[in-house]
Amino acid sequence: MQFKEIFDRDFEEILGSQIVSVIGGLIAGTLLGIYTHNILLIPGMLLLLPGFLEMRANISAPLASRLSSGLFLGVITAKKKTKSNGKIIKGNVLASIVLTILSCLFLGLIAFFANYYIFHVYTPKLIFLVLIAGLIANAIEIPVTLLATFYLFRKGHDPNNIMGPFLTSLGDITSIIALVIALVIL
């Protein structure tokens, strides 16, 4: 392959994923605008929202990157279900779930204490809200990450070029939806 062919293919993949990311960002912003009145009912949500939105992509994108690296190195195979595949994938999924739980607890505690000490409002609901929303978002994002990474690799694409922007947008959308669902649950 010539340098120009590689550049053209990578450029097309990256450009396409960036376009999807922009559209996803618009959808996430629209959802946030629609549900702002629900989300901001709880004091401290404005403190919590940026960190929570950022957290989704920071957990799912590394999962996709680790899977992609395993696929390119041959440690994970895209076509067969093998014992080593299952072990590596389960380990990475478990790590993502543990990271989500710890990050959500940490973020919830920071928002709770900041809300308490700055605004003098006692809202332990913030901690549970973030935890529930994080687990809901994870339940959507992890399967999508696994399926999309393997699908793109099987189709001859480089998941590293595509998954980062895609998961950032998906993370924003699922985070807002998960927060609204968690608000309804609590």
Structure characterization notes:
By secondary structure, the chain is mostly helical. It has one domain: SLC41 divalent cation transporters, integral membrane domain (Tetracycline Repressor, domain 2), CATH 1.10.357. It has 5 helices and no strands. Helix 1 packs parallel to helix 5, helix 2 packs antiparallel against helix 3 and helix 3 runs antiparallel to helix 4. The protein is globular and about 60 Å long. The termini are far apart. 34% of the residues are buried. The mean pLDDT is 84.
Report the count of strand segments: 0
Helicity level, as a percent range?
over 70%
Beta-strand percentage range: under 5%
Largest sheet: none
CATH topology, by name, is Tetracycline Repressor, domain 2
At CATH level 2, the architecture is Orthogonal Bundle
- Which descriptor suits the 3D outline? globular
Q: What integer value in Å does the Rg equal?
A: 18 Å
Mean pLDDT across the residues is: 84
- Calculate the terminal CA-CA distance, rounded to whole Å: 56 Å
Q: Superfamily at the CATH H level?
A: SLC41 divalent cation transporters, integral membrane domain
Q: Return the structural class.
A: mainly alpha
Helix and strand arrangement:
Layout: H1 3-39, H2 45-73, H3 83-119, H4 125-154, H5 159-185
Can you tag this structure with a few keywords?
186 residues, mainly alpha, Tetracycline Repressor, domain 2, 5 helices
